[in-house]
Amino acid sequence: MERSKSIEDYLENILLLSRESDYVHRVDVARKVGVSQPAVQKAVKILTASGFVECDGMHIYLTKKGAEYAERIYERHCTLREFLTRLGVNQRDAEADACEMEHVISEATYSAIKEYLKTCVEQ
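-> structure tokens emitted (123 positions)
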């Protein structure tokens, strides 16, 4: 599957909402992502067809496949945010930039950043 910023943002936000509550509602996703409920409805249809989420009519649940993908995206986000803050970027900008960068950097670049951070911690 080709990576999509929009799909990854939805998955990441559904993951974060599911950590806050047992039930994720479309309205909560709409607020968190900053879109309309019809936009969430359309995204949920795509996520369901891709096997990332299941719905029971009221609630959205990540499937195993969706949870694994969302966890990878969120890990990238957290790693990039940490990297940027260690470079001296303020927290607000680091958060916003990490959110954009997580979708576009190559696996090689991400792995190099992760290795770099690991060596920083070891020192």
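The longest strand covers residues 53-55.
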